[in-house]
Write a structure and sequence with these properties.
about 290 residues; alpha+beta; Ubiquitin-like (UB roll); Pseudouridine synthase; ten-stranded mixed β-sheet; four-stranded antiparallel β-sheet; 6 helices; 18 strands; RNA binding
Length: about 290
């Protein structure tokens, strides 16, 4: 694939600095220098040291990414919310692992996306997961279909500029109706479990209670950081573990997985600068809980 930018400023710049300012990572530029692509200025081959002047057109031409032979192909279905040449947005069901691992290497989200890309005869066959969800969390997942897209979205991800919203069903009556959890989160020993601890990483979760009963509270949740198990940990520490969240002490009588759904995503497409918004409807198991009043 290739993409072109125009230098609009008068200040002298070399190709490398210009591309970094456009959002390309040092890692991608280094890979291109080692043979993964080419740099062009006004249609002619250039190097990262080429001097640019105002009005120059700078193009990156990337070789296609071959499939990872270690990743199996799955032809199981995907619930696709959106797709173009750079992005794939899917509604992941609860129970589907995002990336292959020791316990499941044949039918994860990555395996299914690989099968989808092969079926549509895509040039780039190595998907890049931008937003990863826990196995038993459902909802919106953003995937970059090529390494340029992955590189360009990275600053927004690192700067917490993607607007990510969740729907959670917490145990008991959560008060106040609106609040923020800011306890830093760290790992519990070598286990998968996390906890709020003084030496943890900064974490910020905001919530708004939508509906409350004696058994549960339905809440809209916004993440400002992306720590592992962040929403689950913050509600558990507040005394309201999510329904079905066995790891953090949630009650298991109403639902058999953590009642957490990634319902909404908004971000600025770094290629077009359009604001893209996606929503995934609440899955049936969480809807069923809400009917048990």
């Amino acid at each position: 694939m290739e993409y072109t930018w125009t230098k609009t400023t008068t200040a002298p710049l070399k190709v490398k600095r210009f591309l970094i300012d456009c959002g390309l990572s040092h890692r991608l530029i280094s890979a291109m220098k080692k043979g993964a692509g080419q740099f062009l200025v006004n249609g002619k081959l250039a190097t990262t040291a080429t001097e640019l002047k105002q009005g120059d057109q700078v193009t990156v031409r990337l070789d296609a990414e071959p499939a990872d032979p270690a990743v199996a192909v799955s032809t199981a279905p995907l619930n696709i919310l959106f797709e173009d040449q750079n992005w794939l947005v899917v509604d992941k069901p609860a129970g589907l692992t995002t990336i292959p691992g020791p316990t499941n290497s044949t039918d994860t989200l990555v395996n299914r996306v690989k099968g989808h890309l092969l079926a549509e005869q895509a040039d780039d066959l190595r998907p890049h997961i931008i937003l990863r969800l826990d196995r038993f969390t459902s909802g919106v997942v953003l995937i970059a279909k090529n390494r340029l897209a992955q590189s360009l979205i990275a600053p927004a991800v690192e700067g917490h500029q993607l607007d990510k919203r969740y729907i959670a069903i917490a145990s008991g009556r959560v008060t106040p109706q609106h609040g923020n959890f800011t306890g830093p989160i760290g790992r519990v020993g070598t286990t998968p479990q996390r906890e709020v601890r003084a030496d943890g990483k900064p974490a910020h979760t905001e919530y708004w209670c939508r509906e409350t009963t004696d058994k549960w509270t339905l809440a809209d949740v916004k993440l400002y950081t992306g720590r592992t198990h962040q929403i689950r940990v913050h509600f558990a520490v507040a005394g309201h573990p999510l329904l079905g969240d066995e790891l953090y002490g949630g009650p298991m009588d109403l639902i058999q997985r953590q009642a957490l759904h990634a319902s909404f995503l908004k971000f600025s497409d770094p290629f077009t600068h359009e604001k893209l918004t996606f929503e995934a409807p609440l899955p049936a198991d969480m809807q069923h809980v809400l009917q048990l009043k």
